[in-house]
């Protein structure tokens, strides 16, 4: 008597969202099962990977990262990343815009974004510096400058969703990423607010929050589990946006990835630790329900691509 | 599968003898069904009936014990698919791999690695709890027996991965008292292999590759009366292996099919075929979904740091937050003259704040006070973090050890400043930032 398999595919599905334009546009989402449950139903689209290109320079990067990118500027690095088959989109991270850090001007950021948009044909996702005022200005102006490029703006938060939703979402027809902090109710509330503003649910993605493995990751996993269960099991249209999770910005900030070998000799080479932290966290995000992950190290990108490829 | 009162009633003597303390057999059966009294309260039940009932009231997945003494590990016993439904029960264990195809130097390197990567993280020991001892037929039986002898003395639970019945018999005999796992039953050899496992009284691992073969073999071994099993779900591909793990968990937990209800072994080293980082990715996935024993080539430090942290997160009880021990944590080479910064003992708070302090590079004495394991605002609202509790901690634990009299308070409890100044007149109370992310700039600008 063989095993009786019961398929558990759902009638509801995650929204399909397309990023970018032209031949290199990419569509993701669309799942009607839990992640990688291909035995319930084959996935319509594989999860995708974005390469984070930060404008912060190289000092803190690992040798392997430098070996791959050289000392090129942001545009050259974006070109190199876009040339990787494993990379579906480029995430421009304007960390230097932070008014309490390098305080790079919005004009400089826009010029850089435009230059990147001209140099590559893969979709662009824009990430800010976490300062609400600066990000609001930055996102609004970049949405205008890259009108028609179908970019994703990371992120619209509780504090600035009106401005971001109105500019990126409504005025310039870009995709808006709703960012909440690992709580299904907050995620849903923000989606509702953006939809009430008039942003089409099909033009939205979600960043449900993220954490490095070992740093309260249980909240990330359970939030994603619950959101996917509500989106599919209860056909909750307010939670059916695909999920983009920034992984690298979390994992390359924890001590396991930062500490130099000289300070922690028993831990071994920093590069290995950093890549493992990024890979383990990204794999856990994908297994919990991310439809896209944003990664930094080329080795992490290759590894996670191989993992996705072997499971779909 | 909960039994109804009526089902239990049918099995009682129906004499209403009151020996169990209940007025009638029917009343007794109802209480048993609710779990109010154990079935053993009735002295007239036959052993047969008792076995039948304990079987029926057991959880959908068996709890299997392996190893002995301080190396005893419980596997399985899971009751849900997702951790938000109910806490997961048995955390995953990790195994490193040795093989009789390796030369002695390689084996020694693996064993040295096991010793090296062994540390404490928030009160939990992180190390490879098991050792996967693989039998390579081409390298011969003698070398395998030698290898088993060599690793017999380790505290790691051994998983003897051998499909050859004769070799298995000899290997198990050497280490059976330490309760290893004999990962050897296949659709072809299960009768003989089951006899070996039963005789040595060790847990038997069932392999089969595809789910039908696994299921049929488990069912066949159950028929032979052995339920001390684990299931090696490893298949030719990662995709099929993941399907096996999920389908069996679902079969047991959702559909109540007990033949699916055994802990799993997932050999991610075999799936990754030497791709070190890919192995890390697979291991991570099976920590979440549903590997009981995860077999790696080696648990390196680089891999252990994120992987064991992930496991600790996933298997934490949502009702009991992870806590760090209260005390003084000098950071960035802080001395007794460096300023103090205080926060609560909620592990997540500790990790986030200590990470930011570390990034700032500013020497700080990081103080953790007992706040019941809550976050700053929750602890304050619950009265577990107050001017009184902080002052008591400073006077009793800190004052004599630290010369600096600067104390940085979390911005979220700025309201405590006045009262603290009154209680700690020697101290300068400084209100810090509201969010951890602002700490780097704040510390660099004010304390460098």
What is shown here, in short?
With 312 residues, chain A is of the alpha/beta class. In chain A, 41% of the residues lie in helices and 14% in strands.
Overview of this protein structure:
The complex is a heterodimer of chains A (312) and B (448). By secondary structure, chain A is an alpha/beta fold. Helix content of chain A is 41%, strand content 14%. In chain A, the strands form two sheets. Chain A has an eight-stranded parallel beta sheet with strand order 8-7-6-5-4-3-10-9. Chain A has a two-stranded antiparallel ribbon with strand order 1-2. The longest helix of chain A has 19 residues, at 270-288. Chain A is globular. The mean pLDDT of chain A is 95. In chain B, 41% of the residues lie in helices and 17% in strands. The model of chain B has no long low-confidence stretch (mean pLDDT 92). Chain B folds into two domains: 63-314, Dihydropteroate synthase-like (TIM Barrel, Alpha-Beta Barrel); 327-447, Rossmann fold, CATH 3.40.50. Chain B is α/β, with parallel strands linked by helices and 448 residues long. The N and C termini of chain B lie far apart (63 Å). The interface between A and B is large, with 59 and 60 residues.
Spell out the key features of this protein.
heterodimer; A: 312 residues; alpha/beta; TIM Barrel; eight-stranded parallel beta sheet; two-stranded antiparallel ribbon; 11 helices; 10 strands; 41% helix; B: 448 residues; Rossmann fold; 2 domains; eight-stranded parallel barrel; five-stranded mixed beta sheet; 17 helices; 17 strands; globular
Per-chain topology:
The complex is a heterodimer of chains A (312) and B (448).
Chain A lengths: L15 E4 L6 E4 L18 E7 L8 H7 L4 H9 L6 E5 L12 H14 L4 E4 L4 H14 L6 E5 L4 H11 L3 E5 L4 H14 L6 E4 L9 H17 L10 E3 L1 H4 L3 H4 L11 H19 L3 E4 L2 H14 L1
Parallel strand pairs in A: 3-4, 3-10, 4-5, 5-6, 6-7, 7-8, 9-10
Antiparallel strand pairs in A: 1-2
Helix pairs in contact in A: 2-3, 3-4, 4-5, 5-6, 10-11
Chain B lengths: L4 H7 L13 H10 L12 H11 L5 E4 L6 E4 L16 E7 L4 H13 L2 E3 L2 E3 L3 E5 L6 H11 L5 E5 L3 H11 L5 E5 L4 H11 L2 E4 L4 H13 L5 E4 L5 H16 L10 E4 H5 L3 H13 L4 E3 L5 H14 L12 E5 L8 E5 L2 H14 L3 E6 L6 H6 L5 H12 L7 E4 L7 H7 L4 E4 L7 H9 L1
Parallel strand pairs in B: 3-6, 3-12, 6-7, 7-8, 8-9, 9-10, 10-11, 11-12, 14-15, 14-16, 16-17
Antiparallel strand pairs in B: 1-2, 4-5, 13-15
Helix pairs in contact in B: 1-2, 5-6, 6-7, 11-12, 13-17, 15-16
């Amino acid at each position: 008597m063989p095993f009786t398999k019961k398929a558990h595919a759902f009638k509801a599905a995650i929204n399909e969202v397309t990023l970018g334009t032209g031949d290199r546009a990419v569509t993701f989402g669309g799942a009607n099962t839990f992640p990688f449950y291909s035995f319930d139903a084959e996935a319509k689209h594989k999860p995708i990977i974005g390469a984070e290109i930060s404008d912060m320079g190289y000092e803190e990067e690992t040798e392997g990262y430098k070996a791959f990118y050289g000392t090129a500027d942001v545009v050259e690095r974006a070109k190199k990343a876009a040339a990787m088959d494993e990379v579906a989109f480029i995430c421009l991270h304007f960390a230097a815009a932070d008014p309490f850090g390098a305080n790079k001007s919005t004009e400089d950021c826009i010029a850089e974004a435009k230059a990147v948009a001209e140099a590559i044909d893969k979709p662009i996702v824009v990430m800010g510096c976490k300062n609400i005022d600066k990000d609001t200005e930055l996102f609004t102006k970049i949405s205008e400058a890259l009108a028609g490029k179908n970019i994703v703006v990371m992120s619209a938060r509780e504090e600035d969703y009106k401005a971001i939703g109105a500019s990126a979402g409504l005025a310039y027809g870009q995709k808006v990423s709703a960012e909440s902090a690992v709580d299904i109710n907050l995620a849903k509330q923000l989606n509702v607010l953006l939809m009430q503003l008039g942003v089409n649910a099909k033009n939205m993605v979600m960043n449900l929050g993220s954490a490095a493995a070992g740093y309260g990751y249980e909240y990330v996993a359970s939030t994603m589990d619950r959101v996917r269960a509500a989106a599919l099991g209860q056909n909750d249209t307010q939670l059916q946006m695909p999920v983009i999770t920034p992984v690298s910005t979390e994992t390359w900030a924890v001590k396991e990835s930062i500490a130099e070998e000289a300070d922690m000799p028993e831990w071994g080479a920093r590069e290995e630790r950093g890549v493992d932290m990024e890979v383990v966290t990204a794999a856990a995000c994908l297994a919990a329900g991310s439809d896209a992950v944003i990664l930094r190290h080329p080795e992490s990108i290759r590894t996670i691509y191989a993992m996705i490829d072997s499971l779909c | 599968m909960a039994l109804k009162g009526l089902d239990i009633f049918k099995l009682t003597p129906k004499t209403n003898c009151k020996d169990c303390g209940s007025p009638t057999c029917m009343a007794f059966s109802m209480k048993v069904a609710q779990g109010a009294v154990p079935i053993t309260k009735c002295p007239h039940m036959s052993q047969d009936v008792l076995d039948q009932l304990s079987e029926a009231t057991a959880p959908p997945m068996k709890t299997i014990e392996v190893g002995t003494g301080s190396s005893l590990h419980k596997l399985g016993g899971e009751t849900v698919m997702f951790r938000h439904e109910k806490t997961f029960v048995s955390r995953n264990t990790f195994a490193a791999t040795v093989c009789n195809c390796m030369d002695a130097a390689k084996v020694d390197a693996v064993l040295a690695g096991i010793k090296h990567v062994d540390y404490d993280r928030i009160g939990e020991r992180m190390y490879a709890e098991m050792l996967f001892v693989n039998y390579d037929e081409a390298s011969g039986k003698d070398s395998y027996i030698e290898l088993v002898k060599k690793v017999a003395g380790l505290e790691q639970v051994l998983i003897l991965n051998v499909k050859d019945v004769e070799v298995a018999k000899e290997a198990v005999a050497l280490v059976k008292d330490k309760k290893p796992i004999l990962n050897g039953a296949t659709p072809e050899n299960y009768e003989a292999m089951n006899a070996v496992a039963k005789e040595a009284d060790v847990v038997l691992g069932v392999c089969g590759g595809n789910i039908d073969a696994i299921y049929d073999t488990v069912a066949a071994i159950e028929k032979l009366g052995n339920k001390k099993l684990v299931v090696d779900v490893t298949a030719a591909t990662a995709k099929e292996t993941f399907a096996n793990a999920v389908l069996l968990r679902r079969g047991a937990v959702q559909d109540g099919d007990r033949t699916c209800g055994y802990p799993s072994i997932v050999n991610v080293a075999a799936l990754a075929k030497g791709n070190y980082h890919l192995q890390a990715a697979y291991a991570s996935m099976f920590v979440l979904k549903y590997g009981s024993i995860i077999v790696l080539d080696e648990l390196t430090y680089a891999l252990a740091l994120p992987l064991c942290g992930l496991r600790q997160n996933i298997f934490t009880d949502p009702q009991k937050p992870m806590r760090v021990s209260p005390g003084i944590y000098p950071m960035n080479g802080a001395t007794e003259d460096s300023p103090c910064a205080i926060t609560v003992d909620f592990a997540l708070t500790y990790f986030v704040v200590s990470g930011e302090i570390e990034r700032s590079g500013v020497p700080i004495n990081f103080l953790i006070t007992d706040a019941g394991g809550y976050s700053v605002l929750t602890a304050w609202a619950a009265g577990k973090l107050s001017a009184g509790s902080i002052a008591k901690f400073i006077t009793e634990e800190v004052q004599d050890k630290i010369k600096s009299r600067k104390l940085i308070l979390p911005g979220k409890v700025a309201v405590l400043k006045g009262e603290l100044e009154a209680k700690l007149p020697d101290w300068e109370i400084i209100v810090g930032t509201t969010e951890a992310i602002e700490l780097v700039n704040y510390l660099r600008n004010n304390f460098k």
